[in-house]
Amino acid sequence: MLTVRLLRRAGAIGMTALATFAAAQGTPPLRKYVGSPDYPALLKEPKVKAQLDALVGKALPKLMRNLNVTGEMGLVSGAIQISGNAPHGGGEEEGVICVAEHDGTTQAAILSKGRITVFAKEKNYEYLMTCTKDWITQVNSGHRDRFKQPRNVVFGKPT
Questions:
Q1: How many of the other CB atoms lie within 10 Å of CB of 32?
Q2: What is the value of pTM for the model shown?
Q3: Distances, alpha carbon 153 to alpha carbons 56, 84, 122, in Å
Q4: d(CA 71, CA 42)
Q5: Any residues with CB less than 8 A from the CB of 139 and at least 6 apart, and which?
Q6: Rounded distance, CA 131 to CA 108, Å?
Q7: Percentage helix, strand, coil, to 5, in the chain?
């Protein structure tokens, strides 16, 4: 019983320390871009620009062409997402850039001619950001679930 009480107390202290640390950190520095359509400003951030240049290299012009038609940047599991498509290329020529809001870690991917090429420091799919994997899932579905309700989705009624 004493062990259980000590573990609970240690857990409470740990959670308090974590909450204090998180509050001290404030708003992540890149969060200001969420909801903005000005993705070129995010891509000019020094850490983001350096990583994007190093990861994507000669494919950068193609990635930017595949992001020509885009909307506001969103936040997906702690990463700022820029996603879009080439003019008149939805479903065929698309791209995504995901930037971790807390440290600027950057990943990107291009859909072209039915193939998705991922640009990331991580070389194991399991370790990609959720932002990148969610985009891949959406692209692989042909964006069907954005327009047509999937068979396994039902709407609940208030009780």
A1: 13
A2: 0.80
A3: 37, 26, 33
A4: 14
A5: 94, 111, 116
A6: 10
A7: 45, 20, 35
**Which amino acid, one-letter code, is at 156?**
G
Specify whether the CB–CB gap between 81 and 75 falls below 8 A: yes
Structure tokens at 96: 């995504």
Report residue 83: phi and psi, to 5°.
Answer: -135, 150
For the segment 79-90, the average pLDDT, to the nearest whole number, is 94
1-48: pLDDT as tens digits: 545 444 455 555 555 554 545 555 689 999 999 999 999 999 999 999
pLDDT in tens, 92-133: 999 999 999 999 999 999 999 999 999 999 999 999 999 999
